Every structure is written in structure tokens, then in C-alpha cells.
User: Fold these one by one.
Assistant:
Number 1:
Amino acid sequence: MADRAREGGDKTLVAGQSLAIRTLVAAGVWLTVALAAGGFLLSVFFRETLERNFDARLGVLLESLIGAATVDEEGIISLYRSMMDPRFDRPYSGWYWQISQEGATPFRSRSLWDQDLAIGDGGGHGAPRVFEMPGPDGQTLRVMERDIRLPGSEGIYHFAIAGDVSELRDQIAAFNRTLAWWLALLGAILLLTMAIQVRFGLRPLRRIRESLGAIRSGRARRLEGSMPKEIEPLARELNALLDQNEAVVERARKHAGNLAHALKTPLSVLSNEARASDGPLARLVLEQTAIMARHVDHHLSRARAAARAGVIGVRTPVPPAVDDLVRAMKRLYADRGLRYSVVISDDDLAFRGERQDLDDMLGNLLDNASKWAASTVRVTAVGDGDWIAVTIEDDGPGISEAVQDQVFKRGERLDESVPGSGLGLEIVKDLAEICGGSVDLGRSGLGGVKVVLRLPRATVS
């Protein structure tokens, strides 16, 4: 019942996205945007720098070309010195110069071979102009052009220097590839660093989760240790909640104890008076007070168990409880010479509940088995995931399947010749359900009854 209540409460909690994943995703998005923007700006700056350097080189070559040009008396233009760059002599090398005048055949570098640069005027007023145009052999040329009036000439000459931009574009592409790899590596390193920081930052929450697990399994009573300032109020509130829960349970225990005292005292008085008297009425009073006392004990046990079921962190080792009860049964039934076999799979096997509840359930089952056993009672306790399965068997006469459900009814006794109140198995069933477990009957391999008690298990770690 307690576990079912907890399961019902858990349904109100919906697992959302992990804080760590959400933080990393948000950081990854912003990191990608920032790195992409930074990479774009770096690429733009690099391209502009290369273009300025390329244009500066074109400007130096253009000045050199203008300085080397001369016009003779017949108006024929020539260079009195070479351009000092062998690429201007190699056909279609990607570097070209040309001097042209309106209505005249252009004077060009050998690298142009038999082609001309399709250029217009240089923009007028001696200002250079830079532009791109298609060139020989499918090349794309970056051209710097300028109009100059040479000494001894009345005409205006168009001077042009052109260079293939494929080299420029190759450098830009290589830079962009390298930049992309380095930015990706930087992003991965930063993301990994963020993941480490997030994991380190969320460590206190994991500590609280582990501490709460330890409290629920009974290995701890409170949240302890140093907590960050942001987490410390949460830990303090959780400890206050645990203290309040413990106080409520303690008040319930005291109330149950007071109620037991208030009920048993009058019953004891009546019972003692009945024993002091003789006659049918005295016997009837004695019998009825005994029945009332048993019922009071039964319902008070239920009330105490229901109060204890709400306690967080209670943990009871199973092996000591079984050993103590078996020793008690050996003394109680010493005259019958019963043999008790105990097999416990794990010394750390523990019940998530209080010792008194475990003793009440196992004690009733062992007492019932000992009453009916011919010679042997076998106890087996094993862990089954989040559960403990305690099996108690005897080699007695057993019971048929048709009447198995009846033995759990209040006051039901299948054989009046065997002493008892008929409340034992009902108490076991009620306590098991209150603790969140169950009890089932079956046929034992020994020939008698097999009772399987399943209870919630307290974890070790």
C-alpha cells in the first residue's frame, strides 16, 4: 500500500529534459553562432587583406610599367627596360600588361600572346580603376588600369596590369578550410570544457539524490555534508521535511501506545475480576475479554504498522530477525523436536521497514508452521530485485486450494483442536499490504504448506 502510494505520487512527476543536456544544447547553439560569426568575419578580413595586398602589387607593377614607357619621335611607344618579371614573357602565365591608345594597336606583354585585354578608359583624371574581367585561357583577371599622358605625346595612353585571381582564391579557400577545421576543433574543446563544468556544477544535485536514496534505503537519517550556497536551502528544507515526518510518526506511535494502555487496563480489570469469580458469567466474561484483547492487539498492530510505513529511511536486516525468531520457536516447541532449516541468500538482505513489523509477520508464520509441522520447518530468504521473498514451509498435512483463501479471513480456524485465535495469518496479510508487500499460500515440496512473503527491499548502495 505504501509503495502503491509512492508509485501513484511518482505519476505526478514527469521526467523532463536533462538540465545538463539543456545547458549543453543552449551553450552549443550559442557557441556555434559565435564561432560561425567569428569565422565569417575572419574570412572577410583575410580576403580583404589579400585583395589589398594583391592590388598593392598591381599598383607597384603599374607604376613600374608607366615609368618604363617611352614614346619616340614617330609616336611609337616602347619600354626602355623590361618589367623584370619572367611571368610577363611566358604565354598565358596569368600576369599581363597592356598599353593602348584609341585607334591604335595595343602594345602588350608577350604573355598575352595574340590576345588583347578588352579594357576601356582608365576612369579619367589619372585615377586608377580596379575591376575583374575574363582573360585568356579561361582565366579570371583582376585588372588595375590608369590613363596617362606621356611626355612628348599629345595623346592619352591606357596602362593596364592584370593578374590571375585563381592564386588569390586558392589562398582564400585554403584559409577558409583551415579556419573551419580549427574553429570546429575549438568548438569541440569548448563544448567538452562546458560539459565538464556542467557535470562539476551539477555534482551537488547528484549528491543530494544519492543521499536521499541512502535515506530511503535506511543507510542514513539526514542530508549531511557541505553544500553550495545555492543548494544549501534545498538541503535544509529536505531535512526539515524529514524531521517533520519523523515527528508525525512519533506522535502516532505515542497515540497508539496511549490508546492501547487506555483499552487494556479496563480489560485487565475485567479479566482479573472474572478469574476471581466462578460460574458461567465469569467464564463468559473471561472468554470475551480475551477475544477483545486479541482484537485490540490486532488493530493496534495495524495502526502502528500504518504509522511506521510512512517513515523514510527505516531499514531492518533480515538474517538477525530470522535467527532470533527461529531460536524462539525452538525453545517454544522444544518438546516436539522440530528441525528448522534456514537458508538466506545474502547476509546484507534487508527489509525496508521496522523490526517489529518484520518480527510480527515472520513470527506468526513461523508459529503457524511449527504448530502444523510433523518434523521439519524450512525458511528461505532471497533477494529479488527491489523485493525480498521469504518462504516458510512445513511438512504438515497442508491445506487444499479450495480453502486457502479462507485462512486469511478474520478469526478463521480450519482446525479448532489446534490452539490459536485465528488472527495470525490475517495479521500477516494486513501488515504485508501496509508495508507494500504481499503473502501467498501454496503447496510445499515437503508435503505441507508453503507461505511466500514478499516485502520491499532496502538497498545496500
Number 2:
Amino acid sequence: MYLAKIRLNLFTKIFGFSLFIVLITILINYSFNAIFLEKFYIYRKKELMLKVIQNAKIVYETQSENNFENYVYDIKESKGIDIDIKNSKKSRMMGSHMMRRSDSIDNIPYNKFVDKELLGNDAKILYYGEELSRDSGIFVSTSLSVIQAHSHESNIFNIMTALVALAISLGTGLIFSKRITKDIGCLNEKARKISKLDFSENIEINRNDEIGDLSKNLEKMSKELSTSVSNLKSFVSNASHELRTPIAVICTHATALLEHKEIKEDEKRKYYEIILKVGNEMKELIENLLILSKLDSTVFRLRNESVNLKKIIEEALERYDIIELERDININLNLDTENVLGDSRIIKLVLNNLIQNALKYSIIGGDVKIFQKFNYLVIENTFQGKLGNEIEKLLQPFSRGKNAEDFKFDGMGLGLSIVSKALNLASIKYEIKVDQNRFIVKLKILDN
């Protein structure tokens, strides 16, 4: 029922549009015929008559009477133009077939086009004459009744053409509406399934037009939505899992403090410290989740401003200096460029996460290098354990490397995911690689 309605609407539009085009074409053609056709026909005839009279004068003056009469006959047959000579000797010079309009040219002036109606006939004759000598002249004439008959026949032909065009439009509209609605039905069914989060079927419409492009875009959207929904489910599941553990710890310790009044003060303090530590971890997790949400939002607007890169790095090192001191990290900062163009929020977010990771995952007594190499800012640190080919995995939310799990490093696995999303949002090229026991991140921000 739905497809039948679409087909009927589409057919009505196609046929209506075709009818409109046919009617406009007929109207324009009729208007041009009524206004310009006769004028154009007379204009062309006048040009032809001028050429004929010039040639006739040459033949008349340079060739025999017989040749002239043959020329007159040929012009009459081929061009529909009569040639007459007006002088005192015309009866001797012209054959009787050439004298049928002699009375009509008596009052025709030279070098001027004149049209006359024949008595007892609606036909018009167009005359033109030029002087040959003092007492003679040559005249050409042609009937204009042809254009009148032609105009009538042209109108009939236009009506017949319009009827044929309408019949073709009717058949074409039926064929195209049926074909188009079939593909539209497929797209509609696919869209209905997508609205119910069913991405199981692929769209197979092979067309090189707008509907083909629409099907490809709908298929692309379906795959992207399927991936996004899967990632969202995984994200919610991981977030729930990560929040469940600290909540359980807080509830357990809070319950113990409430139910066991005899707990000693030093043990209570230990419980409080655990609750505070877990609470801070939850706070950090929620803040990171909010950051990820903002980076995924379409309303996030980038700014292009001057950013003091060296100051941001120094502030990040100062912020995490407790990690530096605890792990006895040697920091080497070497920058030639201090200011860059970019979004200070993005750059600060990225550098804070990268520097925190570099300090946290470095071996005790290791080193962290931050330096400029051509247009790249490079952050490099030594690390413990093995990573292998885990770089792509590390960019996913809640994903941590094997060394982080083996050595029980604190963290939720969101740092590099935030970095990746922020850099992609700002269109900043980056490279992350592992070289033996060194973790290296390169950011192309020094030429922005």
C-alpha cells in the first residue's frame, strides 16, 4: 500500500511535469508562429527576390530572349518567383505565359516592396521592381498564400506532436515510477530496520544516479551506526565495570565504619584514606568520560590562537612532579619554538595526558625526553615490560597495555583514547611507536 502510494505520487509528478513542458512548448511555438513566422518568411522572400532580380537583370541584358525565358521558367519552378518585364515592347519580348500579371505591375513603384491582394481571392502577392531603362523595368513577384497555408498545417502538426508526446510521457512515467519506487521501497525498508538498530542487511542498488548515491550513503551510515552502537555498548559496559569496583570498595569500607564501632582510630584513618583514594579515582574517571563526550560532540568548536607551548609543558611537568620525584625520573626538555598556532584547550589536554603517561609508565630512574624534531614535538620515555603490536588497541577506551597490567600501574585506560580523539578533532597529525624499550609520540603541531 505504501509503495503503491509512492508510485502514484511519483507518476502524477512525472506526468504533470511532462504535460507542463508539452503545453509550454506548444504555447511558445504558437506564439512565435503567430508573431514572427510570417514576418520572417517575408524577410527571407525579400532577400531571395533581391538576388533573383539582380541575376535576372544580368541575364536579360547579356543573353538572348530565349535564354532569358528559360531562366524565368527555372526560377518560377525552383523558387516560386515570377519575373515580368514592363516596357513598350513587352508583347514582342515576352511569351504569353509571362503576361498574366502585367496589369498588376502597372502601378508598382521601383525599388520598393509592395504587397497586393488579388481580386476575388484572399491570396497576397509581393512585388518588387527595378528600372532597366527610361521606359522599361523588371519586376519580380511571389505569392504569400503559402505561409498562410503552412501556418495552419503547422498548428495541426503541433497538436498531433503534443498528443504523441503525452502518450510517450504517460508510458515513460509508468515505467520510471515503477522502477524508481522499487528502489525507494528497498531504501525505505532499510531505513526502517536501521531505526530499530537492525544492521544485518546490506543495500544492493546499482545505479549511477542520485538514488544510487543515496543507497551508498545509507549503507555507509548503516555501517558507521553499527560500529558506533557496538562501541557505545562496549563503552557503557566498560564504564559500568570500572565504576562498579570503586563503588563496591567505598560501600564496603563505609559499612565497616558504620557497623564496627570498636575500630581503632589508625585503622579508621586507613579506611578513610582508601575511600578518598577510590573517590578521587572515580572523579578522574568521570572527568575523562566527560572529556570523551565533549570531543565526540558536534558542537565542539575549534579555536585558532597563539599558544605558548613551552609554558603548557612546564605546567604539566609541575602538575605531575610528585610522580617525577617518586620514580626518580630524569626530564630533558629542549624546545626551539615556544609559540604555536592551535586550540589551547586541545593542546593542553593532549600534553597533560601524554606527559602524565610518560612519567607514570617510565621505569624507576628512567628518563623522559621532550624535544623538537623538524616540525614535530616528540615525547619519549623508557618503559618496563613488553607492548608488541598493541598501539591500535591502546587508542581504544578502557584499553591498557600488557605492561600496565603486569606491573599494576594505576589508571583506567582512557588517556591515549582522549589524546587520539583530540588530535583527530583538531586535524593534528601524530605518530605513536615503540622502539625497543622506548615509547615515542610525535605531534606535528610546530607548523600550525
Number 3:
Amino acid sequence: MKKEKSKHLTQDKDTITKKQEKTLGEKILATFSLKKDQEKLGEIMEDVRDGIPFRGTNLWVLILAILIASIGLNINSPAVVIGAMLISPLMGPIIGIGVSLAIHDISLLKKAIANYFLAVGISLATSLLYFSISPIQVAHSEILARTSPTLYDVLIALFGGIAGSIVLASTKKGNVVPGVAIATALMPPICTAGYAIATLNLSYFIGSFYLFIINTVFITVSAFAVARILRFPYKGFPDDGTKSTSKRIVLLIVTLTVIPSIYFGYDIVQQTQFSEKAKTFIKYESHIEGDYLLDQTIDTKTRTIELIYGGKPVTKEQIEVIKNKLPAYSLENTTLEIKQGFASLYEKQQKESGSADQNAQQIKELTVALEKSQSELSQIKENQESQQELSKQVIHEAELLYPEIVAVSFSKQESYTKSGAKQKNIGYILLGKEISNSQKQEIQNWLKVRTGRTDLKTFFEVQKAAVDEKTLSESAPAKSKQ
């Protein structure tokens, strides 16, 4: 009896253990299940249909959101751009396209597509109108960021679209909807496309509108996928041939959308890697005895490294030694340009001579040199006055766009090579506080556009004590010439 009782107890324990294991597995599945929080199908479809049409309230909210986003891009304010994303109703018809494709609702699909094109047209027209009358035509970083879409933008649109579609079908929307609106970022690229039309910049238009298409396609695909995963019932009953055709069309659109972004993404990765290798090369291999490095430029698109030295002339042998070190940094197909930066590069050879003819010739040469120097001094004075006037104009604009800037000055620096003299534009920026490298790059890009000097090299200094702006503006150019 005892043996049988013990046997029964053992079997009961095994049964309880199996039930606990099963319960644990069910709990894990239940944790990730969407069924528990799923909204009733009728209410989901009602939300989808309400978000599609653009008339009345939705239409005015769209126009105002476009204007807000355009202003944010124009004044380079991320906070304003994010605010526009939060109130944008652009996602409605895109979700509608995806859901209608999933349930084969042709009438809903036609309605969603029509309203989508209406929204795109109104968005482009509104942003075009704003940028056509805006006095600020500079492409700031917020605009430039929307002109080069990559594979990462595809992933953002895909994951953002999935999150938006899941939330749409859920009873617990919470604060996810605003996050989805920010992540999918439909407003900035369409506004940037309007800016490109207003400024007649084809490359900006292609890049920004392509980003908008990426977002549209992958939000649509996400809505389609979520609707099928949650088993939304078909409105019609398509045959296998219709289903297969629909899938092929969706797959073709997705493929055509992804391929360019993969190329752009690969190109960005290659440029980033080249930049890092070039910086390492310059750090460890740019030292030349008797010279010091004045400036360096890395062009990732043309794979060019430019080094400008000050001091004695750099010989061909020294240049070859540096060039031969490029392969060690995986920079085999890189063009290295080495230039001199100061006028004190002439090698002087003095020979003792008591010849009167030679002395007369020297006097003549000195007279010619003196006349040339006087002419150059007059030119320098005119240039200084021009630079000071430009500095005054720029500082007034800079105070509005970049409050961190305390003072601005410009000068021209002459560098001499074997082929002759070359002038380079220099900008000096005095900052009230330290700013990031990306902000410095943004200011430098703005100054290049504002001054019309594409070769402008900008130097930044943080104010450590009270500095007289007038003194800085007058003294910086003179110091540069020295």
C-alpha cells in the first residue's frame, strides 16, 4: 500500500510540474500577445476611416503643421520641427492605404490614395509659399539632414510604422502616438521638398522627396503587415491569384524604394571610414622637421587630403615619404596634396661682390620691390576696410541666428607655392560660451554661403574675459597678414 501511495504521489508531482511548465510558457506568450489589448475591429476601422479624409479640421491642422515645420526648418529649430510632427495628420491616409490593401477594401483604398495625394499637394504648396516669401534662404542643418536618406531612414520608417499600426489597433494608446509621429517624421522631408522647389535646388528636392516616399512606403507596409498579423477579416474574398498579385506589387514597391537607400547608406559608411582613417594618418604621419601644420582638409567624396604647412620649403623627397605611408592606413586610392602657407619660403643666397654693376642691379631690384610693396599695402588697407564692413553686416545677422556669437571678423591670408601666390579667406568667431563641433560646422557652412566665399576657413575662440568687439574686428585681419 505504501509503495502504491508513494507511486501516486510521484505521478501527482510530475503532473503538477508539467502544468507549471505549461503555465510558464503560456505566461511568456501572453506577455507578448497583442490580442489582450486589441481594440474591437469596428472601432479600429472607424479610427482608420476618420483619419483618411482631409477636409475641415484635418485640412487646417495639416496646413498649420506644415507652416510650423517650415518655420522650424527655416530658423533651424529642432523643437519647433518636433512640435509640427506632433500635430501632423499626414499619417492617416498612409495607414488607410496599408489597412485597405490588407483587407482588400477597394473603395477605402481609392479614398485613402486620393486623400494622400491631396495632402501631399497641399503640403508642397504651403511650404513652397512660405519659403518663397521668407527672407532667410540659407539651408541650415535641419534642412540638410533631410536631403540624404539612407537605409537607416528605412528602418526608422519601418519600426515607427509598426508601432503606429499596433497602437492604432490597441485600447492602450498612451503616449506612444506622439512618439510615433516624431519617429516617422513625415513633415520635415515634405517641407524640405517645398524649400527645394522655392530655391530651385533639384538635388535637395530629390533627396527630401525620396525620404518622404521611404516613410510613406514603409508605414504602408507596416500597416499592411500588422493588419494581416492581427487577422483583420477581408471585406471581399480574393482568390489565390489576386492575393499573389497584391504581394508581388507590394514586394516590387518595397524593393524599388530600398535599393537607393542601401547605396546611400553604404556611401555614408565609406565616407565616414575614410574620414576616420585620414584623421589617424594626419595625427601620426603629418610631422615634418622644421615645419608645422597650419591647416588640414579632408574631402571624403573625392578622397583627397590637403595639408598646408608653415616654415621652410617641403621637399619632393619629404612629400614622397609621407605619401608612401598612405597604404599603411588603407588609404591606397587617396590623393595627398601638400602646400606651403607663408611668404617666408624663399631661399636666399648671398654672394660677396664688389662689382658696381651688381650693386646697381640690386638697387634697381630693391626699388621695384619697394614700389610693389607700397601697392600691396594700399590693397591691404582696402581689403581691411572691406572685411570690417562685411564683419559689421554679418554680426547683426549672426546675433539673430546664433546668439552664442559675440564678435565676427574676416581677413585674407596669402600663401606662396612654386606656382605662385594664393589667397585664402579666414574667419574669426568669438563665442560667449563653448558650443559643439556640429554647431561650429553649421556656423562655418552658413558663413560660406553668406559671404560667398566657399574656401572660407573659420577659427573659433571662446570668450574668457570682456573683449572689445571693435578691437577684435580691427586687429584680427592685421594679425592674419603678419
Number 4:
Amino acid sequence: MDRDRTHGIGKGTLIVLLFGYWKILVAVAVAGFLFWIMIPRSLFSDPLSTVVYDRNETLLGARIAADGQWRFPWEDSLPPKYKQALIQYEDRHFYAHPGIYPPSILRALYQNIRQGKVVSGGSTLTMQVMRMARKDRDRNILQKIIESVLAVRLELTASKDEILLAYASNAPFGGNVVGLEAASWRYFGTGPHNLSWAESALLAVLPNAPSLIHPGRNREQLKEKRDRLLRNLYAEGIIDSLTCEMASKEPVPGQPLPLPDHAAHLTDHFLMRDPGKKIRTTLRADLQTGVVELVEIHHRKLSRNQVHNLACLVMEVESGNVLAYVGNTRPEGNAFHENHVDVIRAARSTGSILKPFLFAAMLDRGLILPGTLVPDIPLQYDGYSPKNYERGYEGAVPAYQALERSLNVPSVVMLEKYGVQLFLGLLNNLGFTTFDKTSSHYGLSLILGG
């Protein structure tokens, strides 16, 4: 009897223990699941600037993001100088730790207690990425713990280089400048991969206190921080003494520079079509700036005759690539001449440029020969009476002369013979995209740009 009671108690105890272990396993599984899903697929969803480059990654123009920030789309890689400067300044153990570095946290805690205020955060670069992703959170111990947990989680799925890119693309650089790419162009007028050691070091220290050491204010403090980092880079053997000395003599930037705007109408086009994207075009920046100036030279002359709108498109014959794109002239002070209109893309009358297409199509179909006589006489088509530019008539002219002299009446006669609907279909097949009405809408005046 005692054996049965003991045996029964043993079974009950075993059941209780199994039930307890089961609850622990479920709790661990739930905790693990929550730990894994606590980071969204996309850490940053802020609106981005629309940025247009030439074929060699030279900035042609940019439009500010929807939230009023200069925040360029992420780059594929970071320049080596900036990467080394950033790690040396912010997180020397970046490649060794799993997202948090306890010695730095303990050192920061000791310094803050000793000073009686927050003088050091002890955050790794990974923790800073999580702080930026979580936006305007309070800076307290609880939030620091949460950032630490999230940082460890981020390190499990993102590479170190991806974390560096996330930091560099979203760090604040003073005012409304966010991210390395925008800061590089705003403060130095060049891309990140062209930065010197002094420039790279300055941009490495700037996010540490962007409101305090914004370029243009507290410049001596900014220079002191930059030069201290340069000395650290020298002490670590990353740069030599001459580089350190020369870099320390470089001045810090003043007020932010205006961004290039060499292809205003093309940039506006991409803003409407692909907002928030980085667009690499086939344009050549040197040729683009030259063509812009050439258009302005002609504009100054033609404006005396009240001609205020010009455009120029330069294309490479072999490839069809666009090398320069000037959609209109620059605005003239407060005068309004609709300079914002992109003349290159604006739908307008074709004039006489369709006549060669009609001539070639009729030759191809055997409807005419170059010497075929075409009537050039007064005609009426349901109230429509085409006229030649010089208001005269030849009676009959060879087809090739009608084309050479751009005579209107023979061209209308030829279009009537070929057929408006058939010609309109030919134009659409050739790539004309603005003929979006039926043939009855255009009629025979189509060949004259009507």
C-alpha cells in the first residue's frame, strides 16, 4: 500500500514537473519569437530626396524630401576614409562586439555618475542605428536597455557593412541635412568618395552634436573635434604624420553650399516620375553645363525680340544616349515667361517635320517616285483650304521639290492619297507618343502640324 502511494505521488510530481517545463519552454519560445520579430523589415521609412547624377556619378540636381530634409537615397558602399574615421571616433570595437560593448557602457555609467550629468552614452554604432530608427525616444536607462536588446537582434541579421550604411545614411549632420551623401555635397560640394581625410574626419564627428557644432557656428569647437580625431588616426597608424599635419590645416566649412542644379527640368521630371530615387543618367556634366551656358547666351540675344523660351537636347548618334538636356531658359528675376515649362517634353505643333516621313512612306509603298508631279493648286476640303507659306501656287511640282521647299498644298494632297489613319498608325509605330486622338480629330492638317 505504501509502495502504491509512493508510486502515485511520483507520477503526480512528474506530471507537475513536465507541466512546469512545458510552460517554461512555451515562455522561452514566445520570448524568442518576440525577440526575432521586434525589428521591422525596414528600419527607416523616411521620405527621400530625388537625386539625379550624370554618367560619372556627378550630381546634376536634387529635390528636397517631402518632410523638408535633404536625405539622399542610400549608397551601396562607404568610402574607406570616412569608414575608418567613423569607427575610430564612434566605436573602435565595432567589428568585434555583437551589438553592445559592456566596457563602454560601464565606463559611460561611471563618468555620468561622477559628473552628475550625462557626459557619455556608451552606445555602439549599432545601438545608435536603433536609436535613430526609433525616432524621438527619451534618453534614459530604460530606452538604453531597449536599444541594447534591439542592437543585438540587428546584428543577427544584418552585416557590419549594412549597419554602417544604415548609420551613415540616416545620421543628422546639422540643420535639415541627413546622411553622408547629402552632407558631403552640402558642405564640400562633392561626393563622399572624393572627400579628403580632413573632410571625412569632420563628417565623422559632426553627428555627435549636430545642433551644437553646425558648420557656420562654433567653428573652433568643430575644428578641435576634427583635429583630435585626425591625431587619433595618426596614433593608430591609419594616416601618416604629413597627412595629419596637412589635414589639420584645412579650414572647416562655413555655411552649407547650394546643391548643383544643372539640369533643372530633367530633375523636376524625375521628381514627378520617380520621387525619392537616385537616378543615374547618360548625361555628361561638363557638356551639360556648357550647353546651359550656350542656351543662356542665345537667350540674352533673343530676349530683345521677346523670345524667352529655348531648349536644347544633345544626343549621341551611335547610341541615341542623351548627353545634355536643357528644358528651358533660367527665370529672369521676377519676370514670368513660363520658364518652368519643359519645352523638350511639352506637347506642341509638329510643324513641317512630318513631311519627310510621309514622303518616305509613299516611296516605300510605291505610291510616288521622286519625280512624280503633285498638284499645287487652290483646294477645298470640307471647309479646309491649305495654303503655302508664300501664298502662291506652282500648278504642279515634282514630289522631291515639294519636300525640299516644304510646300503645304502638295503635302496635303499626298496625305489624302496615303490616308490619314494609315499615316497616324505609322507615326505611332515609329515611336511618336503624343498623337493620342483619332485620325478624324487631326484630319489632313496633320501633315502641317495642325
